[in-house]
Amino acid sequence: MKTILLSNYSANVLRAILSLKVVDKDIPEPGKDEVLVKLHAAAVNPSDIAFIQGGYNIVKPLPATPGFEGSGTIVEAASGLKNLIGKKISCFVQNDEGGTWSEYFTVHKDDLILLDDRMDMDQAACFTVNPFTGYGLINIALMRESTAVIQNAAGGQVPGFVRTLAKENGMEVINIVRKPATAERLVKEGCKHVLTEQDADFKEKLKTLARELNATTAFDAVGGVLSGNIFNAMPGDSELVVYGGLSGKPMSGIDTMDVIFNDKIVSGFNLIDWKNELDKNEFVEIVEELQQKFINGEMKTNIRESIQFEDIVRGLKEYIGNMSSGKILIKP
Questions:
Q1: What's the CATH number where 123 sits?
Q2: Whose CA is closest to 192, among 178, 218, 211, 213?
Q3: To which H or E segment does residue 41 belong?
Q4: Which residues of the chain have pLDDT under 70?
Q5: pTM for the complete prediction?
Q6: What pLDDT was estimated at residue 58?
Q7: Contact between 138 and 147 (Cβ < 8 Å)
Q8: Are 245 and 223 in contact (CB under 8 A)?
Q9: What is the DSSP string of 242-290?
């Protein structure tokens, strides 16, 4: 089988990308509680970029096959799982032995989602991370009884799902973007509140709007100074939920007095931890609900391009140049 191998971790993302090679390997055998999946498509996510840079919380022995998320068909299975052979799945692979950027890969039974036959397999390749992240984030806002939320990196996939779910629950959304072109796109798509962080009066506009709408929950995928700008703009009794670090910089500028006197907090959201806290039946219900939204067309991942293994270097360069323009899928 063909697989993509990472030779060296490097904080320099270009060097990390250039260390990726397509090689031939033996098809792996599924271990205990594992199945063997024939790849349909693997998604490229910011977590994959962080992984090849050595900056993700999962570090594999090198050389390693990257790729956490993907879709495919189960073609072999360990004892006790033979009934799953032939099933279509979406998955999040965490083992050291392989990743989804491979023609075949193994995955633990607890890390896969069985798909409805009506589910589009390209959409399924992007199903296990972003839709559930958006769902989990909105649940935090619902528990806080927020009537409005703030989110940055608003041109991305998770923020798109947040907007869909917020609308269903009657919440306003303040969208923060970096580029004017992204702001124009969101306005054309019908977003009511869009702010560009490069504007000279950005902080004043954000503070006014956040307090006018009483936006007491914010979702931060960026970090850096933007975290402080959002936190300081929010009214009292608010929560800044951090789920990404796209800036590559530590959070900064948070007003200490706001934390002490205005009952404002910063928390972190990790999808795997959130899933582990759910009752099994509850997770099954969420899976069914989200799949139905994709089948009905209520939710959809924007897919920019599908590339073959041999195009991995070019594809990743284009992806990191403009992540907001859509997902890249890797296909055999």
A1: 3.90.180.10
A2: 213
A3: strand 34-43
A4: none
A5: 0.92
A6: 87
A7: no
A8: yes
A9: E---TT-S------HHHHHHS--EEEE--HHHHHHHS-HHHHHHHHHHH
Residue 311 lies in a domain: yes
The DSSP symbol for 236 reads: S
Assess whether 155 and 252 both reside in one domain.
yes
Q: Which of 238, 219, 248 is nearest to 152 (CA)?
A: 219
Bridge pairing between strands 34-43 and 104-108: antiparallel
Q: What was the pLDDT predicted at 274?
A: 95
Q: At what angle do helices 157-168 and 130-143 cross, to 10 degrees?
A: 40
Q: Can you tell me the distance from the alpha carbon of 20 to that of 135, in angstroms, rounded to the nearest whole number? A: 33
Res 135: pLDDT: 98
What tens digit of pLDDT does each residue of 239-259 get? Answer: 999 999 888 899 999 999 999
Cα gap 102→309, rounded to integer Å: 8
Q: Within this chain, do residues 123 and 144 fall inside the same structural domain, yes or no?
A: no
Q: How many residues does the chain have?
A: 332
On whether the CB atoms of residues 91 and 69 are closer than 8 A, the answer is: yes
Q: For residues 127 and 300, what is the distance between their CA atoms, to the nearest angstrom?
A: 9
| Strand ranges for 102-159 from DSSP E | 104-108, 112-114, 148-151
How many beta carbons lie within 10 A of that of residue 303, not counting itself? 18
